[in-house]
Amino acid sequence: MRHSLVQQLIMDEPLMISAAKLETILAVVAEREGLNVTAEQMMGRGDSSTLTAGGSVAVIPVTGSITHRPTGLSAMSGLTSYEQIDAQLDQALSDSSVTEIVLDINSPGGMVAGVFDLADRIYEAREHKPITAIVNEGAYSAAYAIASAATEIIVPRTGGVGSIGVITAHVDKSAQNEQKGLSVTYITAGAKKAYGNPDQPLSSEALSDIQQRVDKSYELFVSTVARNRGLAVDGIRNTEAGTFSGADAVSAGLADRVMSARDALSMILQRNAKKEPTSRTVGRRARAIAIQS
Predict the structure, then answer these.
(1) In whole angstroms, how far apart are CA 212 and each of 115, 215, 216?
(2) Is the pLDDT confidence value at 156 over 90?
(3) Alpha-carbon distances, residue 211 vs 15, 64, 207, 241 (angstroms)
(4) 185 contact partners, CB below 8 Å, separation of at least 6
(5) Which of 83, 99, 189, 288 has its C-alpha lying 20 to 30 A from 124's C-alpha?
(6) What is the average pLDDT across 54-66?
(7) How does pLDDT run across 239-284, given as a tens digit for each residue?
(8) CATH number of the domain at 5-168+206-273, please?
(9) Alpha-carbon gap, residue 40 to 34, rounded angstroms
(10) How far apart are CA 28 and CA 213, in angstroms?
(11) How far is Cα 75 from Cα 84, in angstroms, rounded to an integer?
(12) Alpha helical stretches, state H, 33-125
């Protein structure tokens, strides 16, 4: 039996998404057996309460679960894709009237594929124009990878960041198939061709292979955040994929200041109203706070 489209995106693939969101996805898959599941049910709608601005400040929304590329599912579900964010970043960078870029983030994370390329682009782009990530109200996992690349991260008192970890899931449907009188035989060439299929128990070899991919993605995640935030790799790893809210996020070095999203945007608009279009004018402030090992 084949995976549904959404199952192909999540099963046995490293994901940078909150465990709660993955549980929701798996619950829907289990209920519907991967059939006729809409993207809205699977991944959740993006938050409609995004920030808006104008003039010299460009706001790029990063909401809902994030995919690598736009798909037909994205249009009806409100999903965001790394390619869409990248395109909006290009537009803001090339617009001489834009003096600052705001990432308006409320997302549980998403796919590994594409996130590190986007984080690298944002990290490089902040040398040309200041980029502020406003957490409105959550920037978790892949969404935090994006936020970490910004010049500054602002989080509200109740907002959360972190979950610097990687997760995946495997669903074994062999017992269910047996109850239904189904017997699925995979005919393959290449020992790993049917690794992780849902119709057989997960072998130790397949588990080891999936774990290696998860571990590689995790190490890349940790090193990327450490570079972006100017923190020690061991300190990032010692967060153990935990999440941090408000002042705790600042104390952990994962955010720079505590402020409501509305007040943060107002502050940014005011300081940019006095600017002429220019290249980078705000340097990343040095951090004396580091995560304790």
Answers:
(1) 19, 5, 6
(2) yes
(3) 12, 26, 6, 16
(4) none
(5) 288
(6) 90
(7) 999 999 999 999 999 999 999 999 999 999 999 987 754 443 333 3
(8) 3.90.226.10
(9) 14
(10) 25
(11) 12
(12) 39-43, 72-77, 82-94, 115-125
| Residue found by looking up tokens 């402020």 in the block | 259
Q: Which residue type, as a one-letter code, is found at position 273?
A: A
Q: What is the pLDDT of residues 84-102, one digit of tens each?
A: 999 999 999 999 999 999 9
Q: Select from 191, 144, 136, 187 the least CA-distant residue to 164.
A: 144
| Of residues 117, 12, 276, 97, the one with CA closest to residue 3 | 12
Residue 146: closest CA among 229, 203, 72, 27: 229
Catalytic sites, residue numbers: 141, 193
- Of the candidates 281, 258, 231, 230, the one whose C-alpha atom is nearest the C-alpha of residue 126 is 281
pLDDT digits (tens, 9 = 90+) for 194-237: 988 999 999 999 999 999 999 999 999 999 999 999 999 999 99
Q: Are 134 and 35 in contact (CB under 8 A)?
A: no
235 Cβ neighbours under 8 A, 6+ residues apart: 226, 253, 290, 291, 292, 293
Whether residue 33 is predicted with pLDDT greater than 70 in this model: the reply is no
Structure tokens at 173: 């449907």
Tokens matching residue 110: 């998403």
| Domain limits, the chain | 5-168+206-273
The amino acid that residue 219 corresponds to is E
Compute φ and ψ for 258, nearest 5 degrees. Answer: -105, 125
